[in-house]
Design goal:
One of its GO terms (molecular function) is catalytic activity. This is DNase I-like protein. InterPro entries: Endo/exonu/phosph_ase_sf (IPR036691), Endo/exonuclease/phosphatase (IPR005135). Pfam families: Exo_endo_phos_2. It comes from Mytilinidion resinicola. This protein is α+β, with helices and mostly antiparallel strands. It has a single domain (10-204), classed as Deoxyribonuclease I, Chain A, CATH 3.60.10.10. The chain is 19% helix and 30% strand. The protein has helices at residues 19-31, 124-128, 146-149, 158-169, 199-204; strands spanning 10-14, 38-42, 61-65, 73-78, 86-92, 95-100, 107-113, 134-140, 172-174, 183-185, 188-190, 193-198. The strands form 3 sheets. It has a 6-stranded mixed beta sheet with strand order 5-6-7-8-12-9. A 4-stranded mixed beta sheet has the order 1-2-4-3, with no helix packed on it. The longest helix has 13 residues, at 19-31.
Amino acid sequence: MLEQPSTLTIIQYNVNKSRETQREFLEKAERAQPQPLVLAIQEPWKNTQQQEHTTLRTKSYYLLHGGSPHTRTCIYINKNLDINQWSVEHHSPDLITLSLHTGREDIQIHNIYNPKPNGIIAALPLLLNNNNAEHVLVGDMNLHHPSWGGIRVINTEEQAEELIRIITEAGMDLATEKGIETWARGTSWSTIDLTFTTGWLTERTTSCTVQEE
């Protein structure tokens, strides 16, 4: 068993409800050496052929899925991590928290899908107010702002301003490279898939990049 992983690798991906995209992503994670510890998915594929509302499983990871037909976030946690060293809380179909208890700092990983027009940003302060843990916030924010989108973003959104206020009050830093392409369709692209970390983790983050598909 991997009791205290020296490196925490988190991969975040919105698979846009595609079974094939999600399957290929999971297969890539299975082949990786070393395998990432956490896979944070937004808009997972839904298995509508069974009574149980779930999504794809894979042999090296436990699937953490709320089981709701409306679920738009799920997490895969590598089975190499002792089951007693993590716990999960499903706050809503769009927000899930994985807590890691590794004997060092407790780390809470919040995976969010922020839908439009009525997002769930307002649910974050209560979660990020836990001073007994370090925090990682990852997900598809669906929000545009120069603070992460760079100078090409002209119009900002009220929810984006609210997110900045929440992140600032929580003492979190943007880990995503400002202005990097995280979503594209045709000739349009934007920076809406974001990662934020609290100070202890910010100091220890070695990279936060966008992988080629």
